[in-house]
Write a structure and sequence with these properties.
Layout (H helix, E strand, L loop, with lengths): L3 H20 L5 H17 L5
Helix pairs in contact: 1-2
Length: about 50
């Protein structure tokens, strides 16, 4: 990923995929939330504000 737009797009795609898994009962709310928070923290450390 080379730019902020691509990173934000990837974050949104990951969120959608996570929501799909959550709605199918394949992951718990806690798993989804911790994954998304971890992803967001990593992006912020890279200097990307969502």
């Amino acid at each position: 990923m080379t730019n902020k737009t691509e990173i934000i797009k990837a974050f949104r795609e990951a969120r959608i995929a996570g929501e799909k898994l959550l709605s199918q009962g394949k992951i718990s709310w806690e798993q989804y939330a911790s994954t998304m928070v971890g992803f967001e923290l990593t992006l912020r450390e890279m200097g990307v504000n969502l």
